[in-house]
Amino acid sequence: MPREPPPGWPDGARCAVMLSFDVDGPTLWLDDRATGRCDDARAFSIGAYGPWRGTPRLLDLLEDRGLPATFFVPGKIVEQWPALVKDIAASGHEIGHHGWLHETFFDHPRAAQRDIIERGQDQLERTAGVRAVGFRSPGGDIAADTPSLLEELGFSYSSSMRGDDRPYRWEIDGRSTDLIEIPAHWELDDYQQFVYNESPPEPLGLDRIAGTLATSDNWRREFDGYHRWGLCYVLMLHPQVIGKPHRVRALERLLDHIGRTDDVWFATGTQVAEHWRRTAGTERGPGPEPEGHPQRVRAAWRSSSPPPPMGP
To answer: 94-97 and 70-73: which strand pairing?
Structure first.
């Protein structure tokens, strides 16, 4: 299999860094996602901490350092915390689409997916005067037809998949499109490290609040690897988790570590997607996705004939 050259980033940067925050609020803790019902006051408060305390603290951090970020916000959170969403937009950050009630998309038909997306877009436009061009599927779960719907609705990019550490163009119905995927990974997701609730249990087996220093060390080492190979480092963070005071301090130390390199491009999802769309396939950037890329293999996998029956 041929080796790909390192991606090219603006102004000679070796590595891209996308800081992203999923402002899920209480939508992660619902008893009934179809109606938005949440009977557990304690669980609701765990989620509400994110937009109420965590996100303002993170906005201050970003302002102090002059860094751009992308905030993926469910429509219900836009509706319930409009002043916060206006503050995010006024601070120059990008707001991406994240469902209405943090729905899983893989079990929704196309019409229902469209309704969820359009409802969120309308709420965001009424609140902050913008419409999202980036999409992150809640939980990273998409249906087979979600990418084509995003393309139809004019989205620039998705940040939902896991199978690469550089962006790529979505191939839909056998054709390469302008819809860009910016993959993120569980290793760089604070939720997998720190989230905890006694009842209802989260995680189901409990026994998880990772050490902050150990997790920060993992994230620093991950950055060093991404920088070594010139990739796109996507932090996928949640204000209700990373927005706790000591974890914000850990995030500051991580940003200090990243900042000690002088060839890093901090960018929003839209900036990454626009750059990749403009340069991929030219002498200034990587070529088309090669044979063996996960999305191409998956397309062939799904369309291949079933295996022959087993013998007697």
So the answer is: parallel
Q: What is the pLDDT of residue 161?
A: 94
List the structure tokens of 252. 């500051």
Strand partners, 135: 97, 158
Phi-psi group of 253: left, alpha or beta (phi > 0 → left; psi -120 to 50 → alpha; rest → beta) = alpha
Q: Tokens in use for 184?
A: 């993120």
Mean pLDDT computed over 49-69? 98
* Whole-structure pTM value: 0.91
What's the per-residue H, E or C state across the chain?
CCCCCCCCCHHHCCEEEEEEEECCHHHHHCCECCCCECCCHHHHHHHHHHHHHHHHHHHHHHHHHCCCCEEEECHHHHHHCHHHHHHHHHCCCEEEECCCCCCCCCCCCHHHHHHHHHHHHHHHHHHHCCCCCEECCHHHCCCCCHHHHHHHCCCCEECCCCCCCCCEEEEECCEEEEEEECCCCHHHEHHHHHCCECCCCECCCCCCCCCHHHHHHHHHHHHHHHHHHCCEEEEEECHHHHCCHHHHHHHHHHHHHHHCCCCEEECCHHHHHHHHHHHCCCCCCCCCCCCCCHHHHHHHHHHCCCCCCCCC
User: Cβ(26)–Cβ(51) under 8 Å?
Assistant: no
Which residue type occupies 187? Answer: E
| CA triple 29-34-39, angle to 5 deg | 40
> In one letter, which amino acid is 53?
R
CA 213 vs CA 169, 217, 218, 255, 294: distances in Å: 36, 6, 9, 14, 33
What integer best gives the mean pLDDT of the chain? 90
Q: 197 is written with which tokens? A: 């609730």
Backbone angles phi, psi at 230, to 5 degrees: 70, 45
Question: Is the model's pLDDT at 210 over the cut of 80?
Answer: no
